[in-house]
Amino acid sequence: PVQPHAAPPSRHRTAARAAYVLAGNDRGRLTVAAPQLYPHMWSWDAAFIAIGLARLSTARALTELETLLAAQWRTGMVPHIVFTEGEVGYEPGPQRWACRDITADAPDGPATSGLIQPPVHGVAVRRILDAARTASAAERRDVAERIRALWPALLAWHRYLATRRDPAGRGLLTIYHGWESGLDNSPRWDAAYAAVTPDPEFVPFRRADLHALGALGGAASQRPSDAEYAKYQWLVEELRRAGYDDARAHRTLSFRMADVLTSALFVAANEELATVADELGLPGVDELIGYADRFRRGVVETADERGFAADVDLRTGDTVRTQTIAGFAPLLSGGLDPARQRLLLATLTSADWCGHPGFVHAVPPSTSPSSPDFDPVRYWRGPQWPPMTWLMIWGLERSGEQETALALREAALDQLSDGLFAEYYQPFTGEPLGARPQSWTAAVALDLLA
Ligand code: 9WN
Q1: 83-122, pLDDT tens digit by residue?
Q2: Which residue of 80, 173, 207, 446 has the fewest C-beta atoms within 10 A of its own C-beta?
Q3: Centre of ligand 1 from the C-alpha of residue 339, in Å
Q4: What ligand 1 atom has the least distance to the C-alpha of 117?
Q5: Catalytic residue positions?
Q6: Is the Cα dihedral 370, 372, 377, 378 positive or negative?
Q7: Which CATH class is domain 9-449?
């Protein structure tokens, strides 16, 4: 007999495959972002992975966050990469960062990078606590205890961001590198990168990413260009020369952007953690709500008359308006007046975005196909990224936009039903691109299917 509410069998298969992928990429206490291209732990990947793992095991999901936070810097910074010992297939590797040789702020444990990534970890903590709701009393107790133990690290991370990454208190987080945004080569950063000039003496390192992607059958056209990479590498060098010191970085780095999407995610993470603190009787509720309010104002201040948000170049003071997915940041932070909220939603579903008639799946592209910067295969310049879709669905559901959320969810599930869990997808052909299987893609699939 057909059960009216049972998911179609292909969805069960997708969920099973996603779980299998996460198990395959599990190295015990951490999940590598993607075995060939990214054989280490990445900060915001780990948060999405924890969100997916929460559907399988709250204990294992917490382990992921514990491993990441164990690599926290003395400043409170959570590094964007925690290196797996013995893995040499990624550049820049630990020798190039040399964080421990350069600053006493780096942790004694595993080697890390010296950058950040968007702070979605608070969202993961909330999801893990939610997943425990239907668990046994013993499991609920265990989850609460482990979150309590993580709490000082989580608060220190948010405090680091609110102080050292927004010293002027404008409610926008500063990034020193496109890598920090997680949207590395997005057109958002083109103008800023145009002003980044590597020292002629500086010798760029090997493109290990192209080598790894080539082995997977992928083309260089799917990754950032060599010219972009030379600048990425040079900024790492500048950061080393600044001793990984935030005050010096704010003065000397040739790339300093106020990142509106990271800031909106910070708003959401603060709100989520505030509810966790409230529920578990943990300290910091007012502080977290204060950060959320400040950064929500900062995000909304950048929005145009249609609610579309922008980044700010802190070196020039210019507001940088690009047709990228970051424009939808207010859907994650909240704070728009109802009229602009409606306009922003209409933009999201319009033919310039998810509703393009040529798209195979109506999920947000990283850059609008109407933008002159759009490239359907090149990384953050056009392809659709499942974790971004997940964030939009999550933000919409959270702000009560159920109808749009549901349509996106269905489209996302269709895209993910190929069972390949690619890093990103070509919007017009549906072709899987980049690394695969990519852990965070499998993780968001698991969560959407649960
Ligand atoms: C640099 C791991 C990471 C993601 C980023 C994505 C990509 C790294 C790279 O891979 O960045 O951090 O080498 O290209 O842009 O969002 O976290 O999946």
Answers
A1: 999 998 899 999 999 999 999 999 999 999 999 999 999 9
A2: 207
A3: 35
A4: 17
A5: 184, 423
A6: negative
A7: mainly alpha
